[in-house]
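Protein modeling request. Please complete all fields; requests missing the sequence field cannot be processed.
Requester role: graduate student
Desired output: 3D structure, token encoding
Chains: 1
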Amino acid sequence: MEENDVRKLIQKYRDGKCTEEEKAMLETFYLQYEEGGAPELTSAQLRAIERSRPGHPATVNTPVRFRPRLVAIAASILVLLSFFVWWFKLNHQNEDVNKLAANIAPGGNRAVLTLSDGQKIDLDSAGIGTLGRQQGITVAKTEDGLLTYTVTEGKDISEGYNTIETPPGGQYRLNLPDGTKVWLNAASSVHFPVRFSGNSRTVELSGEAYFEVAAVKDRSGKLQPFVVNSGSQELKVLGTHFNINAYNNEPAVTTTLLEGSVSLKRKGAADNRTLSPGQQSRLSSTGWDIQEVDTRYAVAWKNGRIQFSNEDITTIMRMLSRWYNIKVTFDGDITGQRFTASVSRNRSISQILMALEATGHVHFKIEGKEVTVMP
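Delivered output (375 residues):
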């Protein structure tokens, strides 16, 4: 691509006329740039672009004084120019990936609700309004696809459980009977009582979910603990915001705390842990690992993003397989490479695969909804 064409693309971006695909790739570039992974210009390219810049001595006779901030901005522009040259070259070379991945659509709001009497309701096709009544509770679907539980009677009945389950390529939001808000990721389920009673509020989680737990007092005026059982881990809180990733095919149960405080317990053991905001715990077969993290990455899925930083390809492909409902196989060893990207969950999978291929460390073969990863 000619340098003049690159400049036109920069102006196109500044004028707000870039396509959605160009914007998505640009977001990925910025994350790579922050992590030090963006492609660099050669010395010759730097000199060529510098000579062509307005204000360069070769084209303007008056001297130019450069301020530190302007130099930094100019450097960013040069890196951006490099990115567009690199991206369009990549886009041309990976037309096959773009075409073959065209039939792989992103996920959406899809889930199945199983009521306490065994009745199953497809929430994707269910109409707006009341879906059922059970144990003094009305279950309804709102216009924006939210599943709500509302107390309609004063009966103190604890029997009855509901389960909401998302398929691969599905997600859903719901408000539990106590007012707790739950965002359920793809290939996940949450099992909960129709009405919370007793000394605690307990739910069972499989897969991944983000919780905003409502603070609820029992009849004596004490705050009622909220408990999430997810495989080998039990989490207990009073009212807070957190994310749990407990997929069976992940090497650890990962809990990320955004607000408040949570108590974690390893089932069958006495080694409890407590998290503070900004901390993430990973519970594996070898024990606990707790670190300070950027919580944005843990909840990116809930905010409509596919976002990862310095992740290995196996972790990334597990994430993509759940959201795009694809089968992934590996042909060769690329486990030593790390990748960074940020793309809307509504984007085509081809944009993500092309961004990964841009690193030169990984390639893909697509047949239907099967993706083979190769070095």
